[in-house]
Structure formats: C-alpha cells, structure tokens
Amino acid sequence: MTPGPRIRVAGLIVNGGRVLLVRQEKAGRSYWLLPGGGVEEGEELVDALRRELAEECGWGESAISGPIALVETIPPPDAPGGRHILHMIFAVEVEPAALERLVSADDAVLGHALVDRESLAEIELRPPIHDYLRAYRAGDPFVSLGRMWVS
After folding, report:
1. CB 33: neighbour CB atoms within 10 A?
2. What is the CATH code for 6-142?
3. How many angstroms separate the first and last alpha carbons of the chain?
4. What CA–CA distance (Å, rounded) separates 91 from 111?
5. Which residues contact 97 (CB under 8 A, 6 or more apart)?
6. What's the CA dihedral at 93, 24, 126, 46 to 10 degrees?
7. Structure confidence by residue, pLDDT tens digits, 83-136
C-alpha cells in the first residue's frame, strides 16, 4: 500500500530582492528548495517549521506568519519513487545578520544561497514555484498554486 500524502512546511525568507534557498541532491541531480521539511506525527505546522529552520539554518527563533501558499507535487503514475507532497509555505522574517551565519545540522542540506528573484528561472527549483517567488510581496493573500511536478 502506498503511503498517503506527506506534509512539508517551507519558509519563504526574502532579503531585499533575494530569496533564501537550500541545495540538496537526489540520484546525482542537484536542486534547490525553500528551507523546511516534513511534519512529524502530532507536530503543529509552525513548530515543524521552527524545528526545520533550526536544523537547516541554525536559527533558534524566527517570526513566522501564514501559511501564505500551498502547492502539491503529485507524481504521474509512471514516475519512479515519486510521492504526493503538500507543501505549506510560510513567510519567515529573520534579522539580516542571521543570513550571514547559516549552518546546517541536516546532512541533506549541501549549501545555502540568497538567490536574486530575477535569476530564479536559471535554477532547478522544487517545487517549480519560480513565478510565485518572483511576484510575492509581504501581505499578499493566501494562494493555492495547484499541482506541480518536476521529474
């Protein structure tokens, strides 16, 4: 039996015209995503995001609001190893100095980058929410981005 959908929380951290992303690699392919991760059984979404930000970025406390967006990655039936994931995106505010001292205790995180929003189209981003990240402004209403998949 296939497991049900996985819930993943992610933090959108905007600094000037740049967005914080973390790099991971799977099956020899490098890609970027918003910092965050899976929600554990019985864990509230915001608590899960705080835990993930501590693991992936080394932050203790962050101002979190939202959720601001939802996106689903649903693999096509022929996708090997794909899984249905609900990505709950929250806005996160951190002191600019915190972006200069990013450390990860998560072995899956291979690096961090503040990426200029106008350059997002040039990178492999999962889920492929390039347009949303480029257009996002603090205070925007919640949006469902629908179904997206990158093989």
Report:
1. 19
2. 3.90.79.10
3. 22
4. 21
5. none
6. -40
7. 899 999 999 999 888 888 888 888 888 899 999 999 999 999 999 999 999 999
Question: Which residue(s) pair with 144 in the sheet?
Answer: 70
Can you give the pLDDT at residue 21? 97
The bridge status of strand 29-33 relative to strand 111-116 is unpaired
The two structure tokens encoding residue 79: 């996708």
Q: Which of 22, 120, 136, 24 is nearest to 71 (CA)?
A: 136
Q: Exposed/middle/buried for 117, CB within 10 Å: 0-12, 13-18, 19+?
A: middle
The pair of three-digit structure tokens given for residue 61, joined into one six-digit string: 């406390």
Determine the pLDDT at residue 2.
62
pTM for the model stands at: 0.93
**Residue 135 to residue 151: CA distance in whole angstroms:** 24
